[in-house]
Design goal:
The chain is an alpha+beta fold. The chain has helices at 127-144, 153-160, 215-246, and strands at 3-7, 16-19, 23-26, 33-34, 45-50, 53-58, 65-67, 70-71, 76-77, 83-86, 89-94. It has a domain at 3-94: Tumour Suppressor Smad4. The longest helix is centred in the last third of the chain and has 32 residues, at 215-246. The chain crosses the membrane at residues 228-247.
Length: 248
């Protein structure tokens, strides 16, 4: 049983296409049904086979897909002699032809006036099937039983609580309230000779931190130094001229 498409417009007029699987329709060379037309999108539409039924779906094409002159936007079931149109290209849908061998003949049933009596029949199940069912149910029961996790050390301590007086060490002496007695306290380390523990540490002296000079201050100081040098050179030149004129 094969669905067919017969082109009724365009260059493929009269040709038939068998639909034996899901087919992509479009201008792309990867399509199952290639339509070389500028109005056809690269991935225009698709034919879908579902349980011997043929469906068509638009894939967001620019110029649309039509069934019997109605534009569709979702999957649409096709019937025999339906007209599927991609933009301006039309195809006629041909449903599969049922062969005579596939038609099942039903034998006539004789109608009698006698009442029909139905008798209950016992169904004997093989012992192997019963055993298999028991094993399966046992496996399912074992799968549902989860192994118990061992409690952590913190959980064990929380469940056990504080140990009783009898559980404590027999060598430790405790009072009525369970507090330990005669606990030796370690002696402090000896103080080295010459160290006065009562001496007061001197207060730290403040350290003056020089303020960083800014770029403007540095440039001003450089200008002062340059002016001072220039004045010094001028004075020296004047003194030299005066000395030359005096000793001439």
């Amino acid at each position: 049983m094969t669905w067919k498409l017969q082109a009724i417009t365009g260059e493929l007029t009269g040709q038939e296409v068998d639909v034996v699987k899901d087919m992509l329709v479009g201008r792309s060379q990867d399509a199952d049904l290639v339509l070389q037309s500028a109005e056809i999108s690269r991935r225009h539409a698709a034919f879908l086979l579902k349980e011997d039924a043929l469906w068509v779906q638009d894939l967001g094409s620019s110029n649309g897909t039509f069934v019997n002159d109605i534009r569709i936007d979702h999957e649409t079931l096709l019937k025999d002699q339906d007209i599927v149109q991609f933009a301006s290209l039309k195809f006629s849908v041909l449903a599969p032809v049922v062969e005579e061998d596939e038609v099942q003949t039903v034998a006539p049933v004789e109608v009698t006036d006698e009442p029909v009596v139905q008798t209950a029949t016992e169904v004997h199940q093989p012992a192997e099937a019963v055993a298999t069912a028991e094993v399966t149910s046992t496996e399912n029961t074992e799968e549902t039983v989860q192994p118990q996790q061992e409690p952590t050390a913190a959980q064990q301590m929380s469940e056990q609580g504080m140990p009783s007086l009898t559980e404590r060490s027999n060598g430790a002496s405790v009072d009525a309230n369970g507090m330990p007695q005669k606990v030796s306290v370690p002696k402090p380390a000896p103080i080295p000779e010459g160290v006065d523990v009562h001496a007061v540490a001197p207060e730290p002296k403040p350290v003056a931190i020089p303020e960083p000079e800014t770029v403007a201050e540095q440039q001003t100081q450089e200008r002062k130094n340059a002016s001072l040098g220039l004045v010094t050179i001028v004075i020296l030149v004047i003194l030299a001229v005066i000395a030359w004129l005096f000793f001439k």
